[in-house]
Amino acid sequence: MSSLGWRVHGDGRTVRTGAVVAPDERLSWPRTIGIGMQHVVAMFGSTFLVPIITGLSPATTLFFSAVGTVLFLVITGNKLPSYLGSSFAFIAPITAATASGGESVALGGVVVTGLLLTAIGLVVHVAGAHWIEKVMPPVVTGSIVALIGLNLAPVAWGTCDQSVVDGEIVESCTAGFRAAPITALVTLFAIILTTVLFRGILGRLAILVGVLIGYVVAAFRGEVDFTSVEEASWFGLPTFITPTFDLAVLGLFVPVVLVLIAENVGHVKSVSAMTGKDLDPLTGRALLADGIATTLAGAGGGSGTTTYAENIGVMAATRIYSTAAYWVAAATALVLSLSPKFGALIATIPAGVLGGATTVLYGMIGILGARIWVQNKVDFSNPVNLTTAAVALIVGIANYTWVAGDITFEGIALGSAAAIGVYHLMNGLARWRGTSQEAASPASVPNGTELEGVERASQA
User: Tens of pLDDT along 274-298?
Assistant: First the structure.
């Protein structure tokens, strides 16, 4: 059962050096509301970018993001601070599914993803999370996260159509970086410079700041159409869409479940480390809550959700882990989602701005996969790890495609399957045969420790 009561931390005004405001504590309500608003700002840019890129309604996505956050807090017993924002892992499958079957078909894929994650959450809650680490060790998880980001690289660059006008070939670019290169460059460099020039929360919101600067530049260049904003009303419900289901696109969404598992498990462990509390028993509930939130979002027209690293950054900077702040954030997001004019304004962000922002975002997703390898000290002198990552990345980046009847499996699905399959096949055979790496394999290149030993031997 959840408990909505919070103890006041200290005097309710300050956080002592070395202390943290625990999830079941809060500062004074004015300060708690301020922190909650800060969480809204932290999640804002990323949560809105996903529906803008995929063509879903930003207001609807924000609505279900708020509802999902409330559900998450209730299901986890109000013990695990988290905001559920739009997951970037859904960008590629939603984009592909929308192109082939329409928006409702894409939402059907989101619903199926949510149902699968819900089922896994129930299993983890009953059986524990140890089996996840066995099925998806860091080399597999890192490979899947990396290939999802790198698979999206062509989307960031954009597409162009060619037509013949007065006997000449004319190229028209309407998406990605190529739609407006100058605006995209301004956005890109604004993000880069904000990251290194500012400290604290402003530096953490570099993507949002870059998008705002790029938007201003685009407006001066005549690339923004405000007609829809002028026609939209100030208050009203978001637009809800009913999902439909098509087996042909479901294969695109299954790998997303693996990413959501990794993100939720990582979130639980991160908050545990920062608060000094053992929150591992809540892992199953976290997965269950995110699964239900994603299912509801897909059922109504929003993008799938995940726990947000951006908000972990706010907690780390403020040392305030109070769940009360997240109730404030959810309420604020809900109010904003009920303004069609606000949603219309967000939807006017032009392609050039998105092209610059996604150049950074998609690359960051790819590098986050590498970060998982580094943090878990994955040994790439082991040919099992090396081959697992190598095959999965190429399949994902090149967007390999396999058609089985009415179902089409593309790079992300095939790359994820390759990561899991290659790892367990090679690891099982290597254990059975008792084999070691061969001298001729790429993995035989000496690592740092071996090179130091060779150098000492030569000097002697």
Answer: 777 878 888 899 999 999 999 999 9
- Cα torsion angle, 322, 328, 334, 337, sign: negative
How far is the C-alpha of 301 from the C-alpha of 59, rounded, in Å?
10
More confident of the two residues 203 and 363: 363
Element (DSSP H or E) covering residue 26: strand 25-26
Distance, C-alpha 158 to centroid of its chain? 21
Q: What is the pLDDT of residues 421-444, one digit of tens each?
A: 999 999 999 888 887 554 434 444
Q: Who wins on pLDDT, 408 or 355?
A: 355
Tokens of 363: 């690359």
Pairing of strands 25-26, 7-8: parallel
What single-letter DSSP state applies at residue 85?
E
Amino acid at 246: D
- Cα angle vertex 185, ends 183, 188, to 5°? 110
Q: pTM of the full predicted structure? A: 0.72
Which residues are CB-contacts of 309 (< 8 A; sequence separation ≥ 6)? Answer: 263, 267
Kindly give the residue spans of alpha helices, DSSP state H, lying in 10-137. Answer: 29-54, 58-75, 91-101, 103-127, 130-135
Strand 168-173 and strand 160-165: the pairing is: antiparallel
